[in-house]
Here is the input.
Amino acid sequence: MTTLFDRESLEMLRNDLTVVLYSNGGTHAAQAWVLPRQLGIESYVLLGGLNYWVEGILNPEPPSDLVADSEIEKYQLREATSEYFDREAKGQTLESKPEPVPKPVIKFKRKKAGDGGC
Here is the structure.
């Protein structure tokens, strides 16, 4: 936490950036949150720390078959978040989605009119 008070660290705290403070589950990030707040910089604390983020958000465990719908929705949100950050890490953005596969065009042949009938 002492590096947060260094001149270089203070210069990185700007209003045009999203500031997220984290630790490994301790209270250091929550304690450090006071400094940017006093400087008028909007900042956030990553609850649970970086280890929780990696385990719970970036690598979520699929729920078992017999869970409440809310648990399934929580997993789906975490999975989507993981995919978003995976895409960001690879330098892709939401605008640079893979090209969609074109749908095949199915042409129906018309039957010829019959030559009479019953």
